[in-house]
Amino acid sequence: MTLRKTIFFDIDGTIYDEEKQIPPSAKEAIAELKRRGHHVAIATGRADYMFEELRAELGIDSYVSLNGQYVVYEGKPVYSNPIEKSTLEELTLFAEKLDHPVAYTDTAGMKVNVADHEYIKTSIGSLKLVFPTHDAEYFLKNDTHQAMIFCPQESQAIYTERYPQLNFIRWHPLCMDVLPGNGSKANGIAEMLKVIGVRKEDVYAFGDGLNDVEMLGFVGYGIAMGNGEAEAKAAAAYVTKHVSEDGIYEGLKMVGLL
């Protein structure tokens, strides 16, 4: 009998194609993994509320969300790693001087410090999500597990030099995620593995983006999507086909899980 494995899937560009749809082969492949007794989980930069429907559709209740800052195993929270409020306050003041909007995300929602901005419309719109609600003081009243700064790519170096205690990960030409210095999907996975008692050598992960690089290098079997970033492919042990060309199904066959 095959030993039970744990498989993590990124969402955007991995489970979801460019139209934010799940290829039929991916849905069936994930269902087959579960039928074979494997543990299937999600590892995403999205917050909980952004993929509730997806979890229900796939029957998944374990996940690493907000790029590793909030981890849930079988429906129960097991790890939380918010950004310090004082750091966020100083970061926000600095970003405002550069006309770079800031978003604050927790498990329940996302708020932005400006009521309207083209950078936000363009980047958040690419996820097929509506413009976030405006609340400039949200981070003072709630834990922020992940922030976002909406700025062009050439501005990123300004922040990385000024805030070495934070981790900045670009996911859109006009937006980057902001995490605690130790924040990553890999760290979130490590926290879940502590709870379930699984060795990372028995863990598989699929991803395509810059925020998947550490995860793909950390697990026993990192599988990058054919549509993935060059850095993700370099970090992975395997490269499968494009998400729209049965990438998940083909990748699972490649590593012997199907």
UniProtKB/TrEMBL annotation:
Keywords assigned: Hydrolase
NCBIfam families, per database record: Cof-subfamily, HAD-SF-IIB
Signal peptide region: none
Keyword check for Manganese: no
UniProt xrefs under PROSITE patterns: COF_2 (PS01229)
Record-level Gene Ontology MF annotations: hydrolase activity
UniProt KW Zinc keyword: no
Species annotation: Paenibacillus phytohabitans
InterPro entries with a match to the protein in the record: Cof (IPR000150), HAD-like_sf (IPR036412), HAD-SF_hydro_IIB (IPR006379), HAD_sf (IPR023214)
Top-level lineage group: Bacteria
SUPFAM superfamilies, A to Z: HAD-like
Record-given protein name: Cof-type HAD-IIB family hydrolase
